[in-house]
UniProtKB/TrEMBL annotation:
It comes from Lactobacillus xujianguonis. It comes from the Bacteria. The keyword Oxidoreductase applies. The keyword Oxidoreductase applies. Keywords: NADP, Oxidoreductase. The active site is at residue 48. Pfam families: Aldo_ket_red (PF00248). Residues 15-259 form the NADP-dependent oxidoreductase domain. This is Aldo/keto reductase. Belongs to the aldo/keto reductase family.
Length: 273
């Protein structure tokens, strides 16, 4: 596994495993298999109702805890300082872990406008040793600017929607300029239309790879950390196999040009999550 270094000095795996809709014992099995397959980053959230299953898989894995980068996220209803600290304690308890590697504010909920208070709680949770690194998710440049200006602490990670139809250019560039690692959620556009793009199919044929591998490699070459979810062992393992080929710069630019004005599924200005 390759790694990037975060702005707080910790390391993050260059590719992770998404767990949305992996619940209960089947979810735990999928996470255990992903760890066996070689994944070292597991992305969960209180909203997914699977912190128990994810924690179980991590605790029962033959991979040592200190080699696994575990993420969870704060729910929108818990943005007040006190509720945020309580949720982090509860997330740790459900997972059966002593610390999390990364904890994110899941959505900014800008209409409620309480994300700076939530961010202050994450800053303190890091000081208390509950979490190693702290970051945000679905934050646009205006939200990032506000938390940085009001607390002086820059998030280590911003996890956003990012795939060939929505390359999050403005946010990616802001993140890069401020030393924030961008993670891509729905990096495979949930196995949707992007797989059928002629460009993606042609590149898959050229490099003897699958459309999913071409898209994940494109994200890797943009210095993004994709976190694909896959319930099947076959998809899990092929999604990891992207480190033995390189797209040319024009090929990277051509995939980036598939971006569409209506390519985004969820707008952070509207979602209350
Ligand atoms: N911060 C946020 O707001 C959000 C975070 N996330 C995080 O990002 C993760 C990934 O995003 P997600 O929305 O799940 O979507 P993904 O883009 O990861 O796509 C997952 C879908 O693609 C299929 N798939 C996976 N690999 C392949 C492959 N090689 N070939 C064909 N199909 C494949 C999976 O099928 P199968 O399972 O059958 O293998 C599944 O249906 C989530 O699980 C979650 O952890 C997601 C959304 C929002
Ligand atoms: O999966 C997540 O992290 C979410 O934030 C959800 O909103 C999810 O992606 C979803 O699709 C809800 O429709």
């Amino acid at each position: 596994m390759q790694y990037f270094t975060l702005n707080d000095g910790h390391r993050i795996p260059a590719l992770g495993f998404g767990t949305y809709r992996l619940n209960g014992s089947a979810g735990a099995t999928a996470v255990e298999e992903a760890l066996q397959n070689g994944y070292r980053l597991v992305d969960s959230a209180a909203m997914y109702d699977n912190e128990g299953a994810v924690g179980y898989a991590i605790r029962h894995s033959s991979v040592p805890r200190d080699q696994i980068f575990v993420t969870s996220k704060l729910m929108g209803k818990n943005h007040s300082y006190e509720l945020a600290i309580k949720q982090i304690q509860e997330s740790l308890f459900r997972m059966g872990l002593d610390y999390l590697d990364l904890f994110l504010i899941h959505w900014p909920n800008p209409k409620k406008d309480d994300y700076v208070e939530a961010w202050q709680a994450l800053i303190d949770a890091q000081k208390f040793g509950l979490v190693r690194s702290i970051g945000v998710s679905n934050f646009e440049p205006e939200h990032l600017t506000k938390v940085i200006k009001e607390t002086g602490v820059t998030p280590a990670v911003n996890q956003v929607e990012l795939h060939p139809y929505w390359s999050s250019k403005e946010t990616r560039e802001f993140d890069q300029k401020h030393g924030i690692i961008t993670e891509a959620w729905s990096p495979l556009q949930r196995g949707g239309e992007a797989f059928k793009e002629q460009l993606v199919k042609d590149l898959a044929e050229k490099y003897h790879k699958t459309p999913a591998q071409i898209i994940l490699r494109w994200e890797h070459q943009l210095d993004i950390v994709p976190i694909p979810k896959a319930s099947s062992y076959a998809h899990q393992s092929s999604n990891l196999d992207i480190f033995d080929f390189t797209l040319t710069d024009p090929e990277v630019a051509a995939i980036t040009a598939l971006d569409r004005a209506d390519g985004r599924r969820l707008d952070p200005a509207e979602v209350e999550g």
